[in-house]
């Protein structure tokens, strides 16, 4: 489902990383770890097609990554550093928007938002939310929408203890539904839940 072979990214004269191989089958989660600036987000951008690797080949959901390709975006869900939400919309409206754009029902919105810890804010504009509440809303959106692949960049950021436990359950739900998940993280419990760990140095 996700295959990277011999992937490298060179910045100016230096290789950020090179000869990197990654294979994530459906239903598996791979964690990417390593120090700040090691290249974790850069690799995720390569997997989503936001950035071209300098060398190597990548296949995601059977396609060459291209974030501009609607067919690719419909199969690959992503939460990156710069992912955003609609500040003027409420969580309920975000879910309605997702359900509408994918032409699906998402089930009981109230239960989903309650589970995300946003039950009491279901009908308030998200622009006034705290950092952790925004992150919960974006994580909910990224995981309830249909996806074969889920790419997460430090999803634990801004989450409280309960939020981090919820995050672990979201990833487990996604892999149980057959998605291939790649998560760059500094949160050790996510490593324990991962099927493989790719360590950047
Ligand atoms: N297109 C680019 N042009 C210049 N520098 C870049 C480019 N892409 C990545 N870098 C640099 O590569 C390094 C790795 O960045 P990256 O965000 O991938 O690290 P990271 O492992 O995700 O770090 P963190 O744990 O801090 O999030 C940084 O020094 C960054 O400035």
UniProtKB/TrEMBL annotation:
Gene3D superfamilies linked: P-loop containing nucleotide triphosphate hydrolases (3.40.50.300)
Pfam family, one: ABC_tran
Keyword Nucleotide-binding among record annotations: yes
One MF annotation (Gene Ontology) recorded for this entry: ATP binding
All copies of domain ABC transporter, residue ranges: 2-201
UniProt KW keywords: ATP-binding, Nucleotide-binding, Transport
Keyword Acetylation: no
Name of the molecule in the record: ABC transporter
Organism: Amycolatopsis xylanica
